[in-house]
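Extended Data, panel c. Modelled sequence:
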Amino acid sequence: MDGALGTLAADRATGLPAAIGRLRGVLTQAPAPPAAELARAWRAERELLAALPPRYGQVLEALLSRMESAAMFGEESCSFSAADLRGELSVWLTKAERALG
């Protein structure tokens, strides 16, 4: 793993704003990482998820599951658009950032 994905584990200790920045970096990385890799990176941010209300974890898991399903069924061939799901993850990040104050 290189780029934003490679730094996720290395700098976890820098706090929640850094976690949000890392996830935003993963989302905007070009080329976009495969869905499974992206989901793994997001799920690895346990400290961030623990700091948020439980509903955030539930919504995130639903988004990541849909993203993985889209990848299994040929990205755009199922009802979940990978591009749209990345947009929803971006909205999730913005709301998480606000929730953390």
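The chain is about 70% helix and 0% strand. This feature is highlighted in the accompanying rendering.
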